[in-house]
Amino acid sequence: MGAHYLATGFGWNLIRDIQAQFQYAFMQHAYTAGAIVAIVAGVVGYFVVLRSLSFAGHALSHIGFAGATGAVALGVNPIYGLLVFMVGGAVGMGALGKRIYGRDVVIGIVLAWMLGLGVLFLSLYSGYATEAYALLFGEILGISQTDVIVTLVAGVVTLAAIAIMFRPLLFASVDSDVAEARGVPVRLISILFMVVLAISVSEAVQVVGVLLIFALLVTPPAIAERLTARPGMAIVLSVLLALLFTWVGLFVSFYLPYPVSFFITTLAFVTYLVVRSWIYLRQRFTKLSPATV
Amino acid sequence: MINNQVGERIITGTKEKQPRELTVSLQDAAVQLENHQIWNNADINVEQGEFIAVVGPNGSGKSTLFRVLLGMQTLRQGQVRVLGETPRRGNQAIGYVPQRRSFDTDVPIRGRDLVMLGLEGLNWGFALPGPAQHRRQQLVEETLTAVEATAYADRPIGKLSGGEQQRLVLAQALISKPRLLLLDEPLANLDLRNQIAIPQLVARLARANAATVLLVTHDINPLLPVVDRVIYIAKGKMVIGKPEEVITTSTLSRLYDAPVQVVKDINGRLFVVGLEQETAHPHEHDEH
Q1: Contact residues for B252 (Cβ-Cβ < 8 A; gap 6+)
Q2: Chain A positions in Cβ-Cβ contact with residue B155 (cut-off 8 Å)
């Protein structure tokens, strides 16, 4: 919870710093789990932005929150509640297919209620504050070895699913009418992708929590898309950015007494601003340059 | 019945003597959507290699006709055959360009990638570099050259103009060498220059690939130089014939059951007068 402020101070020899951090098992787990989550979020996030599912992804994490808090209220491991509710929500939204456009009002209403349910479940159980905090904001520094293994397995499954679906998924995301006419099972892919999203969101919740999912799932691919139109390149860039934000955020939080997720999200946000400003300025100045007239 | 007069005409004498294979054939076909008869008694035969314009007011069922041919809509009555078989989804021999508002400006895909999807978007997995992929990339390059889109094929597709996007989606439909091309209002939102250039491009490429073309449009005039016959759909009836036979005062008045007049200007362009009430359909109709 929060960050650990340790006596071993920061020095400019970064290698030595990293070695010092790696002395601690919890840091090793944090870097590993963080890396897996970042890679998955970078890949899945690319399609989330492409399919305009950012809001649906957000809603899923709130639905998961209700599931997780409900699970704890029942005395069960929250991750199960998280997954069950999320997969249920995912199938429901996936089945809507293209009709999800313009449904943001309905989704918003449902997710608001989910948060309300979550608050109810929280109140049913006192001494609950730390669990709630972890679910909402992430608890990357409290990850055990088992958690790392589970995250790894979920990550491999998710990436394998995306790899198998890759071309039809891209086709259906960019051009669903033509894809459908050509025989791509658009509806099935929509549902499968939402389920994949549910699994990746439930992983990412560990790192940045329910409320800050966008930092890893949306911001890195959004930045990548501004820089390149080639799908392969955009995904690679998205993954690298997500990794960068996660690891640097983690590294910095070791020395400062503020939550990890704050650093991760701030890094993401600042990078986004910088990239967009740079693109804007570049466009303005190439217009002024006589060579392009 | 108008259908019998025009639909049964045999195309004789001009080019080949033996009848060409029928690409599309409708017999006494009818379609119903939500208890609403869209069209009925449709008897249409399209021969291989023909360039057919599909014309009619909004809501008359032009897009529905395409959906029937693509196997996405079943007939209430009658028979339909496409390329000699019952229509089915995912027929690789049909190239389809749906009615489209333009791509979102933010869509981060290159035209080149879009065309490549037309070739391999159906295969599972992702493409690994190698000789097969190289050949596919060459085919994409050739198709892009054929539609004259090489100059902007690597820019994000959302940032291109209507005419440029239209050439790219055409390339996507053409790359799998279809025998039947279904183009749903490809000329909407295009400037006049492209409204004339695109049909000529389509006609040229279709001839080169021995493909049949059905093109839905609101304005027949840019197509007059390249079109063989016209399918006119209005008020639940469907007629096929040469433009000078179908787009006439007598034929259209009978179709619409209203005093409609066809006026020809000195350049040979056709204008239909008296349809103000017919075309006042809201644009949100699914069937066109």
Answers
A1: B232, B234, B246, B260, B262, B272
A2: 229
